[in-house]
Design goal:
2 copies of one chain form a homodimer. Chain A has 425 residues and is mainly beta. Chain A folds into 2 domains: 149 residues, Immunoglobulin-like, CATH 2.60.40; 183 residues, Alpha-Beta Complex (Sulfite Oxidase, Chain A, domain 2), CATH 3.90.420. Helix content of chain A is 10%, strand content 30%. Chain A has a 6-stranded mixed sheet, with no helix packed on it. A 5-stranded mixed sheet of chain A has the order 7-6-15-10-11. In chain A, strands 8, 9, 12, 13 and 14 form a 5-stranded antiparallel sheet that branches. Chain A is globular, with a radius of gyration of 23 Å. The two termini of chain A are 35 Å apart. Chains A and B meet through helix 2, strand 4, strand 5, strand 7 and helix 3 of A and helix 2, strand 4, strand 5, strand 7 and helix 3 of B.
């Protein structure tokens, strides 16, 4: 499904200071209560159709789908980013979700040769190269090995990448939606490598997919022996086709491109492969023309999902600010939120499981009297790392890269509740 | 989708002792490795179609669905339990799932007047009765109140209820599949009640649904003020229609029938309502003809999901035994497993998050040489409660009830790997 998020000249929405802001004092205001309305509400006083007539029975939807009233909640691509849909990306509708689990049907997709459709009976995983015993596993072989369950975020290195030079895309689905968070079930890669017997000279592994692009990346052996899973299930059921069915790599905390999907081959070697995806792509071009390479880890980052440009404020009075924070280096320790462009900060309420290398949900319950807001969130992780501003990041990394932009996002809420992607100097 | 699980005369599969068992000694056996086969595997040596041709692009599945190779993994009803599909039940395919999250599309359903299809803009929740200020909330009102996320199991009181008199249904989907485990997002009921102001005389609440059956149950105020959520989201997205969209009660650890779906009304009173669902239904008929009523809490229970009748053993050598345990009184502390009908027990490996009133996943990694097995699991919760045998339960509760059967399940694995629901004396 395509959409056309507003694309405007760079810096069009850059604010010079927080001049538009009505001030930080937020008036308390009572919840409008229908019971206090003068005339009776027919939705209460009259019997409704759904209370009068029998609905569909239990045998109608053997595999369920969302309500038709939710059909606008979908992954979306961006037309000007999608020259060819079989080598493109779509985005998770973060502003419509809650908690920390992304439903499998809404996990953003990125592929390079379209979605490989593989019969699991015909899928094989080969391990070879610098090993004592080259091996080939069937899916049934893998499913008979000891398995684990872990919840992890997967973030594309290019998430927020269109924002390096200024505020550009008007919606957190597009600025931050190349991320999802899933409970994976799989076999630790170290167990598969132990079967094959890694030779001492093996320092890197090459992971390769079975898709039409034969997508491949080099993975250091230390990470492979640490926490990498070879996963066959997500959120309890089989991987979705667009997420690598029947088998993918799960590389906790590291950029999504290395989580190779439709995984068919692991080769052990003594150096990285210099694959296309780690030389011409997925390197960080710096201001002086040099490139950072093998920048695997996704640093701490956060985004306010509500309000946001696709989810404006609609009511004065009480409101819920909701957002997500994550770190590839551990757990989220704290999230601070400002409503006035940085004059005042408060610690958000973190709710729900706080897991390693996982999305973490935060809330600020606040009253809104209709004044303009400049909203930001700032994540801090278990290593003490604090999410930087975009300008702090640009000082170190320039503006040439499209990868690893974890700068602080700003939303401007107007007095009518409409919300826009901006930057403040 | 209907199926016809084998229905046989009661006690048909009851074993007298464990005479069929080949003994508890389990021989170690190597994983069959394809690399050791004599002839090359063309699935490795030849380029496959999915590696040769581009697949579907990112804009094809805006809300994703499982692989066509997984289309047999669905909720199923049981024809002889489904006189009318709009007042019936279907079952979660537990033997096809892993981890602790049930995908929303596979959560078992039970309803009494079909699936109410409600436009959330037209849904109202009324709170009245023994309150200071009767209130009506819209969905937007509710979504602006402070919310929380919790993972909880929902188990129908009748889960395993067809097994009271003996082994009957051949598959854990049917013996134990009236359970699912979901991350809910919602507003604590105590916050809604605080808005309305509960009078001191209010001791019970009546929860009522907006469906064609107007399903209702009485809930003690103490539970309402403890951990009940009024939820609008499950697994990150809106509730599914068959799970009460747009609003349901989440009553952690208590029988599913009281988790009222399509929730439209909460009335505060000084005693229970004696509703149909708590008098003629959802009471436990004892051997002496008396009934236990308001038996809300689901006690500790477990089931081995793999192997099981729908998921037989297929390979000698290493195998994974997988199962689920839960308790309505707290967390799961330990799960013991026997492979020889109770002669020898071992503690299972508990994996993944261990949460309050949530499904907990356990595994036993074992080798199988082809001998017959009698597999049982036994859960222990954080209160020290130990899951009873079916016979221990029958001594106290008789065999007239169809509710609250948490007895230990037995699977008989034959030497060809086929697995059957049995009981051992």
């Amino acid at each position: 499904m395509s959409s056309d998020p507003k694309t405007e000249p760079l810096n069009r929405r850059r604010f010079l200071g927080a001049a538009g802001l009505a001030g930080a004092g937020l008036a308390a205001s009572a919840l409008p209560l229908r019971a206090q309305e003068a005339k009776p509400d027919p939705l209460i006083t009259e019997v409704q159709d759904w209370n009068r007539y029998l609905g569909e029975g239990v045998d109608k939807r053997p595999y369920g789908t969302p309500s038709p009233f939710e059909k606008h909640i979908v992954r979306r691509d961006v037309s000007w980013l999608t020259a060819s849909p079989d080598s493109s990306v779509n985005f998770t509708p973060l502003h419509e979700l809650d908690g920390i689990i992304t439903p499998s049907g809404l996990c953003f997709e990125r592929h390079h040769g379209g979605i490989a459709e593989i019969d699991p009976a015909n899928h094989r995983l080969m391990i070879h190269g610098l090993v004592d015993k080259p091996l080939v596993f069937t899916m049934e072989d893998i499913r008979r090995m000891p398995r684990q369950n872990h919840v992890h975020f997967l973030e594309c290195a290019a998430n927020s990448g269109m924002e390096w030079r200024g505020a550009q895309l008007n919606g957190c689905q597009f600025t931050h939606g190349m991320i999802h968070n899933v409970m994976y079930t799989g076999v630790p890669l170290k167990l598969l490598l132990a079967e094959a017997g890694l030779k001492p000279s093996a320092k890197w592994l090459m992971l390769e997919g079975a898709d039409a692009s034969g997508m491949n990346r080099s993975l250091p052996v230390e990470k492979a022996l640490d926490d990498v899973l070879i996963a066959f299930a997500m959120n309890g059921e089989a991987l979705r086709p667009e997420q690598g069915y029947p088998l993918r790599a799960v590389v906790p905390g590291w950029e999504g491109n290395i989580w190779v999907k439709w995984l068919r081959r692991i080769e052990a070697g003594d150096k990285p492969w210099q694959a296309r995806e780690e030389t011409s792509k997925y390197t960080d071009l710096l201001a002086d023309g040099r490139s950072r390479r093998y920048t695997f880890i996704m640093d701490a980052k956060s985004v306010v999902t509500n309000p946001s440009p696709q989810a404006p404020l609609k009511h004065k009075g009480r409101n819920v600010l909701s957002g997500l924070a994550w770190s590839g280096r551990g757990t989220i320790k704290r999230v601070d939120v400002t409503l006035d462009g940085g004059k005042n900060w408060q610690s958000a309420r973190i709710d729900g499981p706080v897991l390693e290398k996982s999305l973490t949900r935060f809330y600020v319950d606040f009253d809104w009297a209709g004044q303009e807001l400049l909203i930001q969130s700032r994540a801090m992780d278990s290593t003490g790392y604090v999410q930087p501003t975009k300008d702090e990041l640009r000082k170190v990394r320039g503006v040439n890269s499209i990868y690893h932009n974890n700068g602080i996002q700003t939303w401007h809420v107007r007095s009518n509740g409409e919300t826009e992607n901006v930057e403040i100097a």
